[in-house]
Design a protein that fits this description.
about 110 residues, two-stranded antiparallel sheet, about 30% helix, 3 helices, alpha+beta
Length: about 110
């Protein structure tokens, strides 16, 4: 309701909400970049992020990456073992860009205004 109140107030009378977008936006970007960093860790490199362009600047064009689709975890003689199955390699730049700016199959649009 704090957000709704802030939306209804005029800019001159607006009281800053408890969680302003100026803080929540960069925080959300940081969390999403952490997830991307984990998913791109098989590149074995430090990733450089260009915030205004919303893209990684140093992923090589020919870099491929695979994901674990099944870990095959078992305990054998008291020791944990893994028999990992990996996905087919995909282009790392394309995967990262799709995760950043997801393209929806059917898309969506706002209803027509009266």
């Amino acid at each position: 309701m704090d957000w709704v109140r802030a939306c209804k107030e005029t800019p001159g009378n607006r009281v800053e909400p408890a969680s302003p977008f100026a803080e929540a936006g960069p925080f959300n970007e940081m969390v999403v970049l952490g997830v991307l960093g984990v998913r791109l860790q098989n590149l074995n490199q430090t990733l450089e992020w260009d915030g205004p362009k919303m893209e990684f600047t140093n992923i090589p064009a020919d870099a491929k990456i695979s994901a674990i689709i099944e870990d095959g975890f078992k305990i054998v003689d008291g020791h944990p073992t893994f028999n990992k199955k990996m996905s087919d390699p995909v282009n790392a730049q394309e995967m990262a860009q799709e995760m950043i700016k997801h393209s929806y199959q059917n898309g969506w649009k706002l209803p027509s205004m009266p």
